[in-house]
């Protein structure tokens, strides 16, 4: 799990069949601004920076999967090796992000195969057997 606590899923993955179709290419997990975000698996940091106003960390794993965490203020740098459970950054406060970057009140965590086609997968499948609990989000 990419958080120190057993985070609640506030929005489940809805991976579309085709890359151009609408959907939700990851999960949103309950987390608070300033909370430590952990590498869900060991690998090499592929990217740590800002994309369209959103701080992002991506990790490439040996099996060809890349996991992405946002909005996360990086405590790692591109090329750095990380282990599962290692702190990679802290959750940014969405109130300080541009309007278009305020997608989720918590951590957005995604995963995809980096080969041809960049196939997205539900990152929860990387954890093995887990209990998923969905909660209503006010508003």
From TrEMBL:
Classification via CDD domains: M23_peptidase
Annotated signal sequence range: none
Top-rank lineage group of the source organism: Bacteria
Domain named M23ase beta-sheet core: residues: 23-113
Pfam families listed in its UniProt record: Peptidase_M23 (PF01551)
Transmembrane segments: none
Recorded GO MF terms: metalloendopeptidase activity
InterPro entries in UniProt: Cell_wall_metabolism_enzyme, Dup_hybrid_motif, M23ase_b-sheet_dom
The name this protein goes by in its record: M23 family metallopeptidase
């Amino acid at each position: 799990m990419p958080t120190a606590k057993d985070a609640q899923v506030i929005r489940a993955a809805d991976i579309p069949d085709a890359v151009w179709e609408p959907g939700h290419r990851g999960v949103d997990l309950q987390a608070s601004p300033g909370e430590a975000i952990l590498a869900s698996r060991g690998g090499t940091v592929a990217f740590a920076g800002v994309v369209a106003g959103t701080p992002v960390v991506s990790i490439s794993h040996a099996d060809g999967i890349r996991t992405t965490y946002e909005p996360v203020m990086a405590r790692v740098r591109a090329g750095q090796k990380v282990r599962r459970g290692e702190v990679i950054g802290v959750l940014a406060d969405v109130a300080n992000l541009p309007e278009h970057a305020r997608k989720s009140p918590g951590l957005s965590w995604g995963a995809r195969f980096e080969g041809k086609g960049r196939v997205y997968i539900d990152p929860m499948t990387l954890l093995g057997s887990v209990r998923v609990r969905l909660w209503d989000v006010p508003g």
